[in-house]
Write a structure and sequence with these properties.
This protein is an alpha+beta fold and 199 residues long. The protein is built from 4 helices and 9 strands. The strands form 2 sheets. It has a 5-stranded antiparallel sheet with strand order 2-6-5-4-7, with helices on both faces.
Length: 199
């Protein structure tokens, strides 16, 4: 039985990728980038739901749910407001570009509606029980010494995120995650336009 590692996401317009890249460059200049593993811009996205390994026969059910839910919502406005170290409350190992509270609430509502639809379709996956925090993972790191971690925190505190890092999402995308020699890559398998995006 063939299986694919799938997740549902919102991908970013190129102009937004460029603005986020500018922020990442500013942070690199502030703290140096040799201790951080920066995520390639082509892999930036907003994850809605992880579905894990799914058999090929589940894909049609997943696509039905995505299309049904996308049509119920007008194009949501996505806004990013700050850079944080994550996970919060634990030893940090990632740099996130975090979404606004309002945007997180909108996407959380879409996520809940989508996952309920997937369950109704009989799609089996592990639901995330933690509160949804909309973000883009910019970089990963491990075991930074206190001096470098302090410089990273200082650099983040000094950066100001422009209010122009916002956009209206046009679609929900079904994504496949594949691991290779050069790392993890993501492929869009199918997209469903938000209701207003079809007008």
């Amino acid at each position: 039985m063939n299986k694919k590692r799938l997740f549902v996401a919102i991908n970013l317009p190129e102009k937004i990728n460029q603005k986020i890249d500018d922020v990442a460059r500013d942070l690199t200049a502030a703290v140096g980038g040799e201790d951080l593993r920066w995520i390639s811009a082509e892999n930036w996205h907003l994850t809605i739901s992880f579905l894990g390994l799914q058999p090929d026969e589940a894909i049609d059910k997943i696509l039905r749910s995505i299309k049904e839910v996308a049509e119920e919502f007008e194009c949501p406005e996505i806004e990013f407001e700050k850079i944080i170290l994550a996970p919060t409350g634990k030893k940090p190992r990632m740099v996130w570009l975090a979404g606004s509270k309002e945007s997180s609430e909108i996407i959380s509502h879409i996520k809940d509606r989508l996952e309920n639809s997937l369950i109704d379709e009989g799609v089996r996956f592990r639901q995330e029980l933690r509160a949804y925090n909309m973000h883009i993972n910019l970089a990963r790191f491990r075991n930074l010494d206190e001096q470098i971690l302090g410089a990273l925190k200082t650099g983040i505190d000094k950066l100001k995120i422009e209010s122009t890092i916002r956009f209206k999402a046009q679609s929900i995308d079904l994504m496949e995650s594949e691991s290779g020699h050069s790392g993890v890559g993501y492929t869009i398998l199918s997209s469903a336009l938000f209701g207003r995006g079809q007008q």
